[in-house]
């Protein structure tokens, strides 16, 4: 049964893996469960219900042409990143005869959550999780956040230099900022130009006069190892 | 004698393709046998999936009849259909099917002649291309899209 | 004296300083360094040794600087933030200081995707402003960044950085240089100047902020070899502005190279007149042997003989 997403989770952006790569992973199997996800990957058109149907059709045809048919069962639960939903998929795998692997179009989080519960069935990722970002316009998504662990958007007018400056400068711009664009490519805006413009329109340019000291990557960020949040008040 | 009569699925926009088909009928123009017309309110209603599913289920070729580029009643439905068709063609190439099996044709309401001619052309090209490889594999002894030539 | 380097003394004694640039070899061939040092000998007060410029892998700046010292010239060690974290940087600064390096230029670094190892992991633990602050902490506080760990010995470094009056946003560029001054920079080298008006505007903003009194500004100069080079740079290099009039002049010249040198010498003479400009930084890319000719034609010879720490003249 296809479940509709109850809310539109959309921060994670992913892209479907090339079909050649997916076919390589599926080579040993004759029957799989293809699981989409109703949250982030639906919004960025990488792994929702539509993408599941399209991929299933493509895979079936590709395998038929090589004379090794592939049976695919399709499902798109609301999310895969929580035990409540992952367990539904586990149930289906256990109840359905002959499912040898799960091809998951969920982001890396969903794949890992599923894998945690499916100890005897391989879970294969069908998308590449790329970044956390914004839908700029239909069909266009851009990176906005790198989960640095200590949000400094208050000082930069709501534009993040860690996610949007190619060199993650905290006291930018560098000498390569030209006509509002980053030196590495024309399509990339210079984050510090955006910060400057935003602070100017807010009347807060004085914020740029102070030197922002070196970031604590080792105590705030991924550099301190895989991170964890615990809320004692919420634990049951 | 058994001959290959290509199965063509034609998604016809109700603002252009369907009237053109009706005109072709009025003019008593012949269209290829083994043609399935699927009316859609706008070419933009054609999902990428429909294009692939048609081939998956044994069609030899698919064509989308859409309004001319500036004339879509729903503004850019015809452009959406075109993007999806290009995307589907790309997918086909990656899985080993010929992208030429899919095409889009821009047409006006009174183009009965163009409608018939385009379909006749398509049938000829599909005959040259050969049957959908999937149908051969599924049933090597019989061919799904054959008919008796008199 | 903050570091006692030759360059620092030239400034302190009120002379107009001259530096040039030297790119280390793309391997371990020290003859490359020797040749370039020989071209520059007697024409410069110190030479910048670049640090994997444009992210092309070359011999490390610290190693190349060490050879430059052995060959009898004073280096300015360039250090970029792109490839090293603060641990490696402070470690390298210890080593540099021990090897006799007394000048450091703190840079962000060209993005690694411009170079020949595009799949590397980008570091950028610090940015150039934070690097300046870190070196200042090591020198004046005698501790590591963070102020807690005592350094064994003294790190004497004359701290430099870059400025680009031709990048955007223009109104902010001088402020950014002021930030570098706040962080502790002693001297600034600018990107090469062709648009004299814009540079003069920037210098005015620098003076209005009082930066010229705290920091020695060196104007960047690069001689044009041909009209083609001028057009290429104007179009492809971010942060360089070349006025059409200059391109035309190069195009109309009989011998492009000679005209380029003439223009360069004229620029130097004009730059010397600007209040707050205390020297020039000559970036004669792959044209190092022209440095001597330019310096001589601009009337900058002989270079000042300053007293070394031991009392001997250089």
Detailed description of the structure:
The complex is a heterotrimer of chains A (236), B (150) and C (314). Chain A is of the alpha/beta class and 236 residues long. Chain A has helices at 19-26, 40-43, 49-65, 83-95, 108-117, 161-164, 191-202, 217-220; strands spanning 12-16, 31-35, 71-75, 101-104, 123-125, 127-137, 140-145. In chain A, the strands form two sheets. Chain A has a four-stranded parallel beta sheet with strand order 3-2-4-5, with helices on both faces. Chain A has a three-stranded antiparallel beta sheet with strand order 1-6-7. In chain A, a hairpin with a 2-residue loop joins strand 6 and strand 7 (140-145). In chain A, helix 4 (83-95) crosses helix 5. The longest helix of chain A has 17 residues, at 49-65. Chain A starts with 11 loop residues before the first strand and ends in a 16-residue tail after the last helix. Helix content of chain B is 41%, strand content 19%. In chain B, helix 1 (17-26) crosses helix 4 and helix 2 (48-56) packs across helix 3. In chain B, helix 1 links the parallel strand 2 (8-13) and strand 3 (35-40). Chain B has 150 residues and is of the alpha/beta class. Chain B is globular, with a radius of gyration of 15 Å. Chain B has five helices and six strands, in the order ββαβαβαβααβ. A four-stranded parallel beta sheet of chain B has the order 3-2-4-5, sandwiched between helices. Chain B starts with a strand and ends with a strand. By secondary structure, chain C is of the alpha/beta class. Chain C has one domain (6-297): TIM Barrel (Alpha-Beta Barrel). Helix content of chain C is 41%, strand content 14%. In chain C, strand 5 (158-163), helix 6 (170-183) and strand 6 (187-192) form a beta-alpha-beta unit. In chain C, helix 5 packs parallel to helix 6 (170-183) and helix 11 packs across helix 12. The chains are: A alpha/beta (236), B alpha/beta (150), C alpha/beta (314). At the A-C interface, helix 7 of A face helix 5 and helix 6 of C.
């Amino acid at each position: 049964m296809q479940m509709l997403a109850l809310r539109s989770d959309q921060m994670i952006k992913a892209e479907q893996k090339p079909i050649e790569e997916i076919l390589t992973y599926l080579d040993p199997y004759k029957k799989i469960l293809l699981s989409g996800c109703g949250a982030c990957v639906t919004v960025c058109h990488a792994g929702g219900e539509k993408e599941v149907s399209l991929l299933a059709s493509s895979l079936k045809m590709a395998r038929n042409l090589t004379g090794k048919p592939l049976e695919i069962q399709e499902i798109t639960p609301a999310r895969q990143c929580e035990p409540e939903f992952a367990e539904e998929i586990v149930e289906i795998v256990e109840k359905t005869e002959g499912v040898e692997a799960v091809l998951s179009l969920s982001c890396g989080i969903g794949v890992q959550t599923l894998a945690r519960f499916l100890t005897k069935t391989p879970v294969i990722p069908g998308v590449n999780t790329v970044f956390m970002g914004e839908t700029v316009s239909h069909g266009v998504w851009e990176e906005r956040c790198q989960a640095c662990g200590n949000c400094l958007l208050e000082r930069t007018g709501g534009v993040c230099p860690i996610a949007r400056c190619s060199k993650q400068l905290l006291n930018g711009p560098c000498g390569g900022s030209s006509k509002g664009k980053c030196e590495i490519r024309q399509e990339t805006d210079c984050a510090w130009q955006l910060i400057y413009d935003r602070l100017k329109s807010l009347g807060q340019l004085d914020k740029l006069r102070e030197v922002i000291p070196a970031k604590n990557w080792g105590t705030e960020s991924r550099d301190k190892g895989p991170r964890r949040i615990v809320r004692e008040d919420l634990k049951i | 004698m058994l001959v290959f009569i290509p199965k063509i699925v034609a998604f016809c926009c109700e603002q252009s393709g369907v009237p053109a088909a009706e005109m072709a009928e009025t003019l008593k123009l012949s269209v290829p046998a083994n043609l399935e017309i699927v009316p859609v309110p706008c070419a933009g209603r054609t999902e990428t999936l429909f294009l692939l599913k048609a081939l998956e289920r044994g069609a030899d070729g698919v064509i989308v009849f859409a309004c001319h580029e500036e004339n879509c009643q729903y503004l850019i439905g015809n452009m959406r259909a075109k993007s999806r068709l290009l995307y589907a063609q790309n997918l086909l190439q990656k899985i080993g099917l010929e992208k030429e099996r899919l095409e889009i044709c821009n047409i006006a309401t009174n183009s009965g002649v163009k409608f018939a001619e385009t379909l006749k052309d398509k049938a000829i090209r599909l005959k040259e291309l050969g049957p959908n490889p999937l149908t051969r594999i599924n049933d090597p002894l019989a061919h799904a899209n054959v008919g008796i030539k008199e | 004296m903050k570091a006692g380097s030759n360059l620092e003394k030239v400034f302190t004694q009120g002379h107009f300083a001259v530096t040039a640039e030297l790119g280390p070899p793309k391997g371990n061939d020290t003859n490359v360094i020797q040749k370039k040092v020989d071209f520059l000998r007697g024409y410069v007060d110190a030479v910048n040794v670049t640090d994997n410029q444009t992210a092309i892998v070359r011999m490390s700046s610290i190693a190349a600087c060490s050879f430059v010292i052995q060959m009898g010239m004073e280096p300015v060690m360039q250090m970029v933030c792109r490839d090293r974290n603060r641990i490696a940087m402070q470690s390298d600064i210890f080593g540099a200081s021990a090897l006799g390096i007394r000048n450091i230029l703190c840079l962000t670094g060209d993005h690694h995707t411009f170079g020949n190892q595009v799949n590397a992991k980008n570091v950028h633990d610090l940015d150039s402003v934070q690097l300046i602050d870190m070196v200042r902490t090591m020198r004046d506080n005698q501790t590591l960044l963070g102020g807690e760990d005592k350094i064994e010995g003294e790190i004497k470094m004359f701290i430099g950085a870059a400025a680009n009056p031709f990048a955007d946003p223009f109104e902010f560029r001088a402020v950014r240089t002021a930030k570098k001054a706040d962080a502790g920079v002693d001297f600034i080298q600018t990107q090469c100047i062709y648009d004299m008006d814009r540079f003069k505007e920037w210098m005015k903003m620098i003076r209005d902020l009082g930066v010229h009194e705290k920091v020695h500004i060196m104007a960047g100069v690069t001689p044009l070899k041909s009209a083609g080079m001028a057009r290429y740079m104007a179009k492809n290099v971010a942060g360089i502005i070349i006025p059409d009039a200059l391109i035309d002049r190069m195009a109309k010249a009989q011998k492009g190279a000679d005209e380029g040198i003439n223009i360069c010498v004229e620029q130097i003479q004009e730059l010397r007149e600007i209040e707050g400009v205390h020297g020039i930084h000559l970036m004669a890319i792959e044209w190092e042997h022209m440095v001597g000719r330019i310096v001589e034609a601009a009337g900058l010879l002989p270079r000042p003989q300053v007293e070394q720490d031991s009392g001997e003249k250089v």
